[in-house]
Each structure stands twice: as structure tokens, then as C-alpha cells.
């Protein structure tokens, strides 16, 4: 149910009427630092402890066997598989336009060159828990493949039975991910950055997550490459009127609202029938 604000006749600033996400305080930072230190020192044993505590179940193996990816791909609905493959192809086509062999500038007495070189291992974090996010698999792993990264590694929190959702595994198969690990949270970021007995460290970490994942990425930046922009709570504003297809409006709102309780999804609408 959407909370409704009637702003007709309201003058002046609206800032006081519109809530903003709460910024993380010191407590999550301290907790994340403790998790990272523990994973660095105890490796897989620490992963097991935090996974059992936060996810409620342990996977049979940290690394998901390649056969599981193939099984998941064969089991998903054919329409879902087709959608995953179409999304993969579209993402790859776009990112291929960003590739260039070399940018070169010649001036008297100097040559300036800019080269793109893929890293050896890229770690892709895909959130879980509230929903399955095959789109995140594709949007992180496919660009890495296009860039020529030798090994693309995926970390996904396991579900209550210690398993990863089939559609996520199917997306990993479609994207030709090299390694998939059933581990999430700050402990997954620590494992990707420093390695454990089961997880080899990577060169760069990408992908969204909750506040603990975002803080963990910030903490390991420098040890591994991390994008300079850290993802915060999801926000979306959808503007709709009587000509807008209401089902698509609802979908646009829901796909952001499902990301977590800290996100904000707004509908700006001046037609009460559409809002209803």
C-alpha cells in the first residue's frame, strides 16, 4: 500500500515532507571491520560462522559445482531463459562500444597513450535474501566478460536451505561465469578481497548490496579495486498520467521497493484514477 501525499496547494519547500534514507552510523562500520578481520584470520571457519548466523543455513560446498549451473539453466522456464539470453546480448552489445585498443596523442618530444587492460579476476557481488536478482548477475558479469577478464567470480548469499535460486544460477550460466560461491554479506567481500581456503582473492569487486556490503567494499578499497561510487539505498521516482500503462508503472515502483526497507519509491501523479 502506497502512502499518499496530496501536495495540491502546498507552497514552499517540500523537503520536510519527503523522508530520506537513514545514513549508517558507527555501529555497522565497527561490525563490518570485525567481520573482515575475522575472515582474514580464520578464513572458511569465519565464513561458516557468519553464514550460519546471518543466512540461517550453510551450503553443502562454498563453490557451486558447474553441473548445478547447467542443471539450473535446463530447468528454468524457456521464456525466462530467452529473456536472460536477450538481456545478456543487449548488455554485451552496449559494453562492446566502450572498448578501445588504444588512445594515443603525439606531441613534440612526447607520446601519451591510454590502454585498456583487463584484470585477471573480477568479483561480482549479487544480493539475495529478499528476492532473486538475475539481472545483477548479467549487469556485472557480462561487462567483465566483454572486457576480457580471465576469471569472473560470483558471490551470492545462500537461501534458507543453503542453496542459491535457480534463476540466479541460470543467469550465471548464461553469462559464462567461471566460479560461483554461496556466500554473502560483508564476509563475502572480505573473502573476495583477501581470500580463504576455498575462495581465491580477486583484483576488483563490483555489484550492489546492503549497508554492510557497501561498508565492506569501502573498507577493502585499495587492497582490491572498488568503483569510487558506493551504492546506497535504492531510490526511484516514476511520473505517470492518464496515458501511462499502470502495470508498467507498478512494476517500475516494485522493482526498486523490493531492494530493501531503506529504499524509497515515489509515484508522482496528478490523476487519482491512475494512483488508485
Reconstruct the topology from this structure:
Blueprint: H1 26-42, H2 44-55, H3 66-75, H4 78-96, E1 102-107, E2 110-115, E3 121-125, H5 134-147, E4 151-155, H6 166-174, E5 179-181, H7 185-194, E6 204-206, H8 211-220, E7 235-240, H9 246-257, E8 264-269, H10 272-275
Parallel strand pairs: 3-4, 3-6, 4-5, 7-8
Antiparallel strand pairs: 1-2
Helix pairs in contact: 1-2, 1-7, 1-8, 2-7, 3-6, 4-5, 4-6, 5-6, 7-8
Q: Could you describe the 3D structure shown?
A:
The structure is a single chain. The strands form three sheets. A four-stranded parallel beta sheet has the order 5-4-3-6, sandwiched between helices. It has two domains: 26-95 and 119-220, Nitrogenase molybdenum iron protein domain (Rossmann fold, 3-Layer(aba) Sandwich), CATH 3.40.50; 233-275, no CATH class. It is of the alpha/beta class and 276 residues long. The termini are close together. Helix 6 links the parallel strand 4 (151-155) and strand 5. The chain is built from ten helices and eight strands. The protein is globular, with a radius of gyration of 21 Å. The longest helix is centred in the N-terminal third of the chain and has 19 residues, at 78-96.
